[in-house]
Each structure stands twice: as C-alpha cells, then as structure tokens.
Amino acid sequence: MTEQNRQAALHVVKRLHEAGFQALWAGGCVRDMLMAVEAQDYDVATNATPQQVSGIFKRTLQVGAQFGVVVVLLDKAQVEVATFRNDGGYVDGRRPEAVEFTDARQDALRRDFTINGMFYDPLTQEILDYVGGQADLAAGVIRAIGEPAARFGEDHLRMLRAIRFAARLGYEIEPETWQAICQLSERISRISSERIATELEKIMVNGNRYAGMKMVLASGLMSHIYGNCPAEQLSEGIERLKLLSEPVDFALALTATLSGGLWDKTSGITRSLKVSNDTRKKALWLAESVCKLLSELPLSKGRLKQWLANEWFNDLLNLVWACQIRDGKDTGPLAELRRQIVDLGDEEIKPVPLLNGNDLISLGLEPGPKLGQLFEQMYLAQLEGELVTQAQARQWVSERVRKV
Ligand code: ATP
Ligand code: MG
User: How many structural domains comprise the chain?
Assistant: First the structure.
C-alpha cells in the first residue's frame, strides 16, 4: 500500500519533470524518509499551476484548486499535488484568506515546523532544506519555522500539532516555540471542536500519550480545551494515562484524563469536543462504571458474566486498574477478579435464557415491570449456575409468583 503510494508519487514527479516543471516530494514524507520510517502518504509540490497539473494527467480531482491542490488519480493510488505557494493573510487564526503561487523556498517557509518543511527530489535523491530541518531532526527538536508566535497566531491548531509531533517522535519542543504555545494557548478556543478533537485523538492513541498530554496540560491548552477544569484534577487524570496498558483508544484515554474526580464532566466534554457517538457512548459508560464495578467487588459468577458481556469491559478493567494503582489502593480484589475470569474458561457468558417473557406470563405473571424484574433475577440465577434446566426455572418462578 505505502509502496504503491511511493511508486505513484515517483511517477507523478517524473511526468511533471518531463513536462518541464520542478516537482519534489514535500513535508511529512520527507521527514519520515529521513527518519527511516515508512511514510503513509507522499505529497508532491511543484511549480506547475493547478491548471497545468490537470493538463498533464488524465484523471484529476480539483479538491482545493484555489489553494493550489490537485489530486492526481492513478490506477492503484492517488497523489496530492500542490503548487508551491505562500499562504496570504490569515484572518481568523484558522485558514489563509488567499494564496499566491511562488517557489519551493517560499513554500517551505509557510509550513509549520522545520522537520516538516523539507523537500526531496526522488530523481536526483537530493534534499532541499531551506529551514534547517535536517539539523532539527538530528537533534530531535520541534521548531516553528520563522517567528513562533506569529506562526501560531496565524493558525492556532499548530500549537496542538507541535505537541503531537513532539510526543509521537519523542522530541523536545524548542524553547521559543514552546513559550509561544504557552503564551497563545487561550486562542485554541477559536479552533473548531472537530479539529481539536482530531489532534487530541492522535495524541491520545499514541503510545507516548502520557508525555503528549503532559505538554497539553503544561502549555495551558488543556484547561481551555477542557472548559476550565482545575489543572490539579486534570494532572491527576493524566498520571493515570501512564498506567494504562495497550491497546488504548480515544474513548479510554479521554475518560482516563477525567479520572481525577472529573467523571461528571464526561458528558459535557465529549459533547463540546463533538467526538463521534461511539466514542461518547463508550466514554460515558466507562466513567459511570468505574465506581460501580469497584463497589460490586467481589463479583458473583453471574454478575461477572454480566459485566463480561459488555464489549468494553476489558477497557474498564484497564482503567480501574490504573486508577487503583495510582491511588495506592489495594489491587487484591482486582487480581482476584482476573483470576475469576481465567477460571471461567470457555463457559457461556450470554446463554439463551431458560424461559422468556411469554413463559413467565403463562406461569401467572402480569406483563409489566414486575415481570421484567423477575426475569432479570431468574436470568442471574441461571448465570450463577443455580438454575440449569427449564423445569428448575419454572419451579423457581412459580415459587415467586405465589409470593407476589
Ligand atoms: P502525518 O504523518 O501525521 O500525516 P504530516 O507531516 O504528513 O504528518 P499533514 O497534516 O499530513 O502532516 O500535513 C502535510 C504537510 O503539510 C506537513 O508536513 C506540513 O509541511 C504541512 N502542514 C500541514 N498542516 C499545516 C499547518 N497547519 N500549518 C502549516 N503547515 C502545515
Ligand atoms: Mg500526512
């Protein structure tokens, strides 16, 4: 897949070159290549205008022609081709108002960080580095291109991007760049929730989420993103991130950040971040289940099966474990729970109920909440292994119908 993308990007560069244009690989793929990491996608930058690019290739998509971007469609891959540009004035801290087509040097200067600002010519194997990206790669530094405060002032999302790259690569953020993020952190509120959530998710699903979120907190970004929750409690939540075991998805990490006594903020924060419905549902379930599970320990066999039937139970256990360890609590009951799960072996967790609602009615129960309750109790007894046959279940129900 990525090799196909590489071949496709090489082909596009060759064709543009044959047509007399300059064409280079640009940005993230050059960084990844220099780090000997497989790049996900290869972006091409060129001095050909979008119209000229569309004229050279048979099938193209004009996704952002006004910003100089054309997607070239090939048999097995597609390649983004962007005309060298210089982003004009930024009016709203989000997107440039207009762009001007320029040369490779100018195009490097509009990019966010030095390590993301390099070009590579796959035909000559030459690196074009106008911004000192190679030195920062070697030193492990995230440095804004140009004046950091001005660059973050143009596009506030770059503050989170800086942290995302620093965390993902295990790099330091250069001091002036860091200072500018701290100074301007409050402006993150002007960025749309969806874009913030996308960056946060990338930080949180990465294995280095603990370092990443510590930076999000220390910079001041977190309290603005989390609606002014107290830093101390957020910090406590972040400490739990460190103790989660992989795999960790967005919902689990997000809930963990609220584990410092901020469970009741889960609904508000998942809503304000506009995370997906699935993420929100899962985060809400996790947040409300931590205390509930702990209060039920030790679990009976039947309750254990009911908890296990939930698809997110493993994540809950992961979170509860992290909370207990962090708080220096006795993990004995949790270890016991794990043993119980192992002991369960391949026993059916969600067997078909021995009796259904109609069976209960025929045994003399009126439809309604009482029937529902009795059904739940009967099913739990079945899960506990107390009721094995239908006859036993009927007998069990009949005894209780008489009492009602
Ligand atoms: P990833 O591997 O996460 O995709 P990437 O570096 O490819 O990392 P993209 O968001 O795909 O990141 O952007 C591609 C390139 O476009 C970046 O390497 C950078 O040069 C430039 N870029 C992206 N977003 C911005 C921005 N907000 N401001 C300035 N330049 C940007
Ligand atoms: Mg990319």
Answer: 3
How many C-beta atoms lie closer than 10 Å to residue 49's C-beta? 16
pLDDT at 404 over 60: no
Coil, strand or helix at 27: coil
**Complete edge-to-edge strand list for the sheet that includes strand 23-26:** 60-64, 69-73, 78-83, 43-46, 23-26, 119-121, 126-128
User: Is the same domain home to 399 and 284?
Assistant: no
Give dist(CA 256, CA 251) in Å, integer. Answer: 9
Q: Hey, which of 86, 112, 192, 198 would you mutate to test ligand 1's pocket, going by the most ligand atoms within 8 Å of its Cβ? A: 112
Per-residue pLDDT at 332: 93
Q: Is the pLDDT of residue 67 over 60?
A: yes
Dihedral sign computed on CA atoms, order 118, 200, 148, 98? positive
Nearest CA to ligand 1 atom 16: 27
Give dist(CA 285, CA 305) in Å, integer.
17
Last residue of a domain, one of 134, 169, 196: 134
Q: What is the pLDDT of residues 214-264, one digit of tens each?
A: 999 999 999 999 987 999 999 999 999 999 999 999 999 999 999 999 999
pLDDT, tens only, 83-97: 999 887 776 777 777
Q: Are residues 72 and 14 in the same domain?
A: yes
N-term to C-term CA, the chain: 66
- For tokens 């762009």, the residue is 99
Pocket of ligand 1 (CB under 6 A): 27-28, 40, 43, 111-112, 116-117, 155, 157-158
pTM higher than 0.70: yes
Whether residue 126 has pLDDT greater than 80: yes
User: Could you tell me if 217 and 178 are in contact, meaning their C-beta atoms sit under 8 angstroms apart?
Assistant: no
pLDDT at 403 over 90: no
